[in-house]
Structure formats: C-alpha cells, structure tokens
C-alpha cells in the first residue's frame, strides 16, 4: 500500500493511520510523524507547490522508502495552500515487519520532505509574510542518508 | 511560438506575477534577458534550479525550451 | 503532559494521539509508534508484568525521555494479559518543538520497552506456548543510547 | 514470619505456581534451597535478576528479605 497525496484542505491523521494498519496486517508496527503549524507567533502558513514536480517527487520518495526500508506500506500526505496555527501540515507513516525499519523510514521521509521536496513555505507573523528556508541542521539531517546510501 | 516562465516561492514575490509568456525557443541567455535583473541575479546562484517541461535541469545553462513548454524557476525549497 | 498506562484491555491509538496533540499546542510535531501482534502464525500473545516494578519503570522511562529529548509531552501505553493477532500491544508517542527530537524519543522509548522494561512475553502457535526473549539486535539497539549518554 | 517468593515468566512455568510462602528472614542460600533445583540453576545465571520489596538488587547474593516482603524472580524480559 502506497498512499501519497497533496491536499488543498485540512485533514486529520487518524483515518489514514487506521487505513494503513488495516492494509498491512502482517506488519509488526506502524511509525508516524505529524508536523503541524506551531501556535506561537505564526498566524497562518502558506505552502506553495509546483504541480509538474511536487507530487511525482513525493511518489518517487515514497517508492525509495518502500524499497530501502522493506516497508509493507507507506503514507505521505502533505498540505498545500493556507494553513492555520495548530493544523497539520504533513503526515508520514510507515508499516514494517520490524520496528526500526518503520521508525527509520519516517525519519528518512521527513528529512527529504523538509529540504528536498518541491515546496516553498512562508509564514505570516505580526509584521507580515516571511519565506522560510531550510535551516543548516536540515541539510545535515538530509546528508545522513547520503552517507549511508552505499550500505543500503 | 512561445514558452511560459513560471515563478515560484520568493521569486514570484520579486516579479509580482505567477508566470510570463516569452518567445520560443528560449535558451539560458534569453531567459536572463526575459526576467527582471533581480530575478536574473538569483538565477545565477547555484541554489536556484530550473525545470523545463517538468524535468529539473542538471545544467541550467543548457536550457532550450521549445514552443508550449514550461520553464519553472525553483528557489531553495522548504516543506514539512 | 505525561500519560503512562498499563492496560488489561484492548485500545485504539487514535484517541491518545489526538489527546497528545491537543495537550501540546506549541509542539511542531508528534511522532508515534504502534506495535501490534503480527497476523502470521501467532494465535494469541500473552504479556505478563510485575505490578511493583512494571508501571514505575515505565514512568521513570517516560521521565528520562521527556528530559533527554526536551519533549512537550509523551504517551506510553502498554498492554498486559492476552492479546489477539492484529491488536495493538504498545503505543508510544512524543510531542516536541523540533522534528528529530520526537522521532528519536520514540526510537529510544521502544528500544527500552522491548528489552529493558519488566514484561515477559509468550506466543501461542500451532504447537503451543513459546516464551520470547529479546533478539541480539534488540540489545544492540538498546546499547546505542548508552554509548550516546555522554552527549546528552 | 514469612516472605513470599514470586515466580515470573518462564520461571513460573517451571514451578507451576504463581508464588510460594517461605519462612523469613530469607537470604540467598535460603532462596536457593526453597525453590526447585531447576529454578535454582536459573537463579545462578547472570541474566536472571531478583527484586526484594519492589527494588531490583544489584547484588542478588546480598538478598535479605524480612517478614512480609516479596522476593520476585525476574528472568530476561521481552516487551513491546
């Protein structure tokens, strides 16, 4: 099972997590990460995407994770448009035979969505809109998977 | 005979429009002349990518957009 | 928020995950792991515990995770008794400011629950009951956190 | 004047009962005599722990259970 979506409207993580569990009865576990707009300071967040690249890129990323971590199933849902404080931006989930594969797959998927997927994010604060660029630590996080690529 | 230049993220703010139609074929030097100087300066930076017809170019100076093709200007991304 | 429970009956992961999200509005993300009884071969699984040690041990583990990974909130739910194929055994979830803290906290919590918490697990298969002991890899997984303890 | 020995996991299977009341005080050699030889053999292994009054002993041979206290025999764990 591979469920990859770009969503223009709000979503709740519970239904896709339950669907993944149902679709993968042989998996010993499901790991997930839900990223949301933090309450403090940000009034609204906007995510722009580029149709011809963004969804195909997410699908290719999900396929890489399926193969690399031997997953039974994967969910990658990402919001676009305007998102209010407290609302989910992204959900990734992975079902696998063994525990660490699903947890590492979630880590891998989030590192790539954060700084290697075709999204542009800006935040509206008291003083107007601000574009967000990946922090140095995001690039360091991403580089971990490249160093390891010879192993997997 | 035209190609469409698509501005994304902060580059869209610089231009004030979503896209711009220009004569095709369009190469790298034609692109730099077709956009405002502030955008051209950005395009020359390594961290800004270009996609043509839905594919990211490994060498953006090799751009050669044909009639009807879309050229997307891609500043550094931030998702999640 | 610290929600640590030993549960004699079945549970669904969705309500505690939603409660954690509500309790931690300033957290940028929530990571989770749900472990369940795999469908193939096992008819039923039994988890024994020892009242005076098991819950206090889980509470101390949750406190260590809160402090080490600077969490806003943590959920550690673990079943006891007889559990049928497909049902959840364990849920851990962590809410944090930054993404990797919650993902690493989930990894940390599961490694410790798997081979350093006071549970004894046996599976009923076609040919009767079999006690499960941690695999060598579980001990290796656990040792990662000891090596790193000087850093955190 | 008695202490209670509690058997857990696979050790419970060896004995066939959940617990056993024995005279207190109970020390390490008294414990080895109070349980079946198959359990005593297990207790001598490093991977089997002992808790007394709700605390795991760092040195199990230092056991000294008083009246009313519980002595839990703890084989290797497996949770999650």
From TrEMBL, chains A, C:
<comment type="subunit">
    <text>Heterotetramer of 2 MoaD subunits and 2 MoaE subunits. Also stable as homodimer. The enzyme changes between these two forms during catalysis.</text>
</comment>
<dbReference type="InterPro" id="IPR003448">
    <property type="entry name" value="Mopterin_biosynth_MoaE"/>
</dbReference>
<comment type="similarity">
    <text>Belongs to the MoaE family.</text>
</comment>
<dbReference type="GO" id="GO:0006777">
    <property type="term" value="P:Mo-molybdopterin cofactor biosynthetic process"/>
</dbReference>
<dbReference type="Pfam" id="PF02391">
    <property type="entry name" value="MoaE"/>
</dbReference>
<protein>
    <recommendedName>
        <fullName>Molybdopterin synthase catalytic subunit</fullName>
        <ecNumber>2.8.1.12</ecNumber>
    </recommendedName>
</protein>
<comment type="pathway">
    <text>Cofactor biosynthesis; molybdopterin biosynthesis.</text>
</comment>
<dbReference type="GO" id="GO:0030366">
    <property type="term" value="F:molybdopterin synthase activity"/>
</dbReference>
<keyword id="KW-0501">Molybdenum cofactor biosynthesis</keyword>
<dbReference type="InterPro" id="IPR036563">
    <property type="entry name" value="MoaE_sf"/>
</dbReference>
<comment type="function">
    <text>Converts molybdopterin precursor Z into molybdopterin. This requires the incorporation of two sulfur atoms into precursor Z to generate a dithiolene group. The sulfur is provided by MoaD.</text>
</comment>
From TrEMBL, chains B, D:
<dbReference type="Pfam" id="PF02597">
    <property type="entry name" value="ThiS"/>
</dbReference>
<dbReference type="InterPro" id="IPR012675">
    <property type="entry name" value="Beta-grasp_dom_sf"/>
</dbReference>
<dbReference type="InterPro" id="IPR016155">
    <property type="entry name" value="Mopterin_synth/thiamin_S_b"/>
</dbReference>
<protein>
    <submittedName>
        <fullName>MoaD/ThiS family protein</fullName>
    </submittedName>
</protein>
<dbReference type="InterPro" id="IPR003749">
    <property type="entry name" value="ThiS/MoaD-like"/>
</dbReference>
């Amino acid at each position: 099972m591979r469920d990859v979506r770009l969503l223009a409207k709000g979503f709740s993580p519970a239904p896709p997590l339950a669907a993944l569990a149902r679709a993968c009865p042989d998996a010993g576990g499901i790991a997930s990460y839900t990223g949301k707009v933090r309450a403090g300071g940000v009034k609204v967040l906007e995510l722009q995407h580029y149709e011809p690249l963004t969804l195909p890129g997410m699908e290719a990323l999900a396929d890489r994770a399926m193969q690399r971590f031997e997953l039974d199933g994967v969910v990658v849902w990402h919001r676009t448009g305007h998102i209010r404080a407290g609302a989910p931006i992204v959900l990734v989930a992975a079902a696998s035979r063994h525990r660490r594969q699903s947890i590492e797959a979630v880590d891998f998927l989030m590192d790539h969505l954060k700084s290697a997927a075709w999204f542009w994010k800006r935040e509206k604060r008291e003083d107007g809109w601000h574009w967000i660029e990946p922090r140095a630590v995001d690039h360091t996080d991403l580089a971990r998977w490249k160093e390891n690529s010879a192993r997997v | 005979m035209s190609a469409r230049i698509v501005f994304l993220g902060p580059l869209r703010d610089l231009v004030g429009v979503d896209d711009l139609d220009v004569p095709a074929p369009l190469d790298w030097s034609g692109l730099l002349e077709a956009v405002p100087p502030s955008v051209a300066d950005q395009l020359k930076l390594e961290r800004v990518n270009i996609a043509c017809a839905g594919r990211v170019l490994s060498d953006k100076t090799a751009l050669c957009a044909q009639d009807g093709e879309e050229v997307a200007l891609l500043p550094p991304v931030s998702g999640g």
